[in-house]
Each structure stands twice: as C-alpha cells, then as structure tokens.
Amino acid sequence: MTALSGAKILVTGPTGQVALPLTLSLAAKNDVWGVARFTDAAARERLETAGVTCVGADLATTDFAELPTDFDYVLNLAVAKGGDADWDRDLAANGESIALLMARTTPKAFLHCSSTAVYQHVGPTHPLVETDPLGDNHRMMFPTYSLAKISAEVVARAAARDHGVPTTIARLNVPYGDNGGWPGWHLEFMKAGHPITLHPQRPNLFNPIHEDDIFATVPRLLDAASVPATIVNWGGEPASIEEWCGLMGELTGLVPTFEETPNTIGSVFVDLTKMHDIVGGTEVGWRDGIRRMVEARHPELLHG
Ligand SMILES: NC(=O)c1ccc[n+]([C@@H]2O[C@H](COP(=O)([O-])OP(=O)(O)OC[C@H]3O[C@@H](n4cnc5c(N)ncnc54)[C@H](OP(=O)(O)O)[C@@H]3O)[C@@H](O)[C@H]2O)c1
C-alpha cells in the first residue's frame, strides 16, 4: 500500500496538531470518521466540511458503542496531557481507551501514535534505539505524559495480541509543519521576545519530522502492522533547537534568546534504522520544512 484510498478509517483526536492536516488529507479519498470531545468547534467544522463524520466522545469514559465496527484502519492520534496532572483521567484516556477501541473495531491494522517521550533521558550522546530503557523525560512540562504514553503502549501490545489486530506503535519525535508544532511555538516565542528554554547538555538534539513525511509514512506504517505489535521510532533527520531557531532567526531577522535550565525537556535523539528498513526515509529536510513552516504561519516575518 503506497497510499490510502477507498478505505473506512477512524482517527482519534482528529482536531489535534498532527491529526488535523492528516485527517483532512485522508478524507479526500476515504470514508473518514473522527472521535474526540471536539472542544475546538472551528476544527470540527473544517473536518465536517471535508466530509469527515465526527463522533463526540470522551476517551476517558466512552466504551465506543456509538461507533460502527467495520473500520479498515484505526489511527490512534488522540492524547490527553493536561497540565493539571489528572492521572486517573490521563491513564484512562490514553491507555484504557485503546483496549476498548481495539475490541470494538478489530481493524485490518491499528496505528498507535506513541512518542519518544517514552525514553529515559540520556542527552545528545547517542541515538536511542527501540530497545533502549524507558523513562519519564517530559515530567517537568507535562506531568502525566511519558508514563501515560508508556502505559498506552503496553495496552496496545496486549490488546493487539488479545484480538489478533495487526498493530504498529510508532514513537513520534517532533512533528511540525504548516499546522505548527514545537518549532512553531519557538517561532511565536521569538516573535514575542520570550526566551526559549534549553537543557544545559548541548546541543538540544531531536529528529523533527515534517507533516508531509507523516502523511507519506502512515500507509507504510499500517503495512508494517503485526502481532505482536511492531514498535518503531518515527522521525526525520536530526536537528537541534539551537539550529532550527538559528535558521528561523536568519529567515526573519528575529534574534532567538535562550535560557538554560535542567528543568526542561532535553535531547531525545533517536536511531531511525528500523524505521528506514520498514517504511523508508523522509523527504523533507529540516531546513526546507522550517522555511515552509515560517512561510505558512508568518509570511510577514520573512525577509524580502
Ligand atoms: N505534538 C508533538 O510535539 C508530539 C510529539 C511526539 C508525539 N506526539 C504524539 O502525536 C499524537 C498527536 O499529538 P498532538 O500534539 O497532535 O495532539 P493535540 O494537538 O494535543 O491534540 C489532541 C487530540 O486528542 C483529543 N483529545 C484529548 N483528550 C481527549 C479526550 N479525553 N477524549 C477524546 N479526545 C481527546 C483532542 O480533542 P479534544 O480535546 O477536543 O477532545 C485532540 O483532537 C499523540 O499521540 C502525541 O502523543 C506529539
């Protein structure tokens, strides 16, 4: 499968940063359904206008009885990560929901979007492979995030075996593009003259992946689904916060200011050998992708 067409697809969290452009693009050639609470009414309207059937539900409490059972594919892109540290809600919404959703839908393939937030922080010294130790590298910004994402992986692994549903667990690094993302927030900070936090262990290295590459790799990640679940890192070529903010500075004339603190997310830099074997490499280099993001979000800031 190199593209998805003519399929019935369920996307959880379709109003999110990553899922909204993906869901809109899938809706052009597929029967797409979305489930979320739809707190963002404008995003819901965009989805419905594109033909997406929106089902309002809270993943922390629903049993999905309101959904049909004949989906070909499920893309689990919702995430509950409130700064209020409601552990019970976040474990239910991120973890328990997967077992209930898989039991309800038993699709041909299930893509669970995980995060490289599941790894123990080691700094920029070596790229993390899928078998490296897990830990909590997001606690200082999102208290429940890493542990809820680890819990969600375990539920996805168990439910895949229980229901015989081919599953891929893809550990996404830093998604970005015209719809924003972490580099997009850095651009807003630069525009507002706010400092950007950096971990003292330099460089602050990640694997940003452009939304075009996310679209391109989703069908191949579904192809790679298996029982037991396939677990794979999901990212692009390495780049540091220092580098992408530096480029945004060159493009706009805004000067990034940095504030060093150990109380921020440090490097999470991953090995992409397995991803490249399974789904191939990415196409959009980070310099090109960041330039496109600035053009899309703040064209008025670009020089000339
Ligand atoms: N963004 C990143 O930098 C990043 C990095 C690595 C991995 N990821 C992963 O990528 C995926 C997408 O993340 P994102 O940042 O794009 O998400 P996001 O922008 O925060 O959107 C989250 C989505 O989940 C829905 N949602 C949240 N709580 C819910 C609940 N209780 N019940 C039903 N729906 C709920 C939201 O809609 P409502 O609030 O309206 O319900 C929204 O549609 C997640 O798996 C995330 O862990 C993201």
**Number of helices, where a helix is a run of at least 4 consecutive DSSP H or I residues:** 9
Can you tell me the residue ranges where pLDDT is under 50 for at least 5 consecutive residues? none
Q: Note the main sheet.
A: 7 strands, parallel
Quote the beta fraction. 15-25%
- CATH fold naming: Rossmann fold
CATH architecture: 3-Layer(aba) Sandwich
- Rg from Cα: 19 Å
Name the helicity range.
25-40%
Amino- and carboxy-terminal Cα gap: 42 Å
Q: What's the name of the CATH homologous superfamily?
A: NAD(P)-binding Rossmann-like Domain
Bound molecules: NADP nicotinamide-adenine-dinucleotide phosphate
Say how many strands there are: 14
Q: What is the string of helix and strand elements?
A: EHEHEEHEHEEEHEEEHEEHEHH
Strand order of the largest sheet: 3-2-1-4-5-6-12
Count of domain modules: 1
Mean pLDDT: 96
What's the overall geometry?
globular
Structural class: alpha/beta
What is this structure, in a nutshell?
This protein has 304 residues and is of the alpha/beta class.
What does this structure look like?
This protein is of the alpha/beta class. Helices cover 37% and strands 18% of the residues. It has a single domain, classed as NAD(P)-binding Rossmann-like Domain (Rossmann fold, 3-Layer(aba) Sandwich). The protein has helices spanning 19-27, 41-49, 87-105, 145-163, 182-192, 211-223, 241-252, 273-279, 286-297; strands at 8-12, 31-36, 53-56, 73-76, 109-115, 167-172, 174-177, 180-181, 196-198, 205-206, 208-210, 230-234, 239-240, 258-260. The strands form 4 sheets. The protein has a 7-stranded parallel sheet, with helices on both faces. Strands 8-7-11 form a 3-stranded mixed sheet. The protein binds NADP nicotinamide-adenine-dinucleotide phosphate (NAP). NADP nicotinamide-adenine-dinucleotide phosphate binds at residues 13-19, 36-40, 58-60, 77-80, 93, 113, 115, 149, 172, 174-175, 181-182.
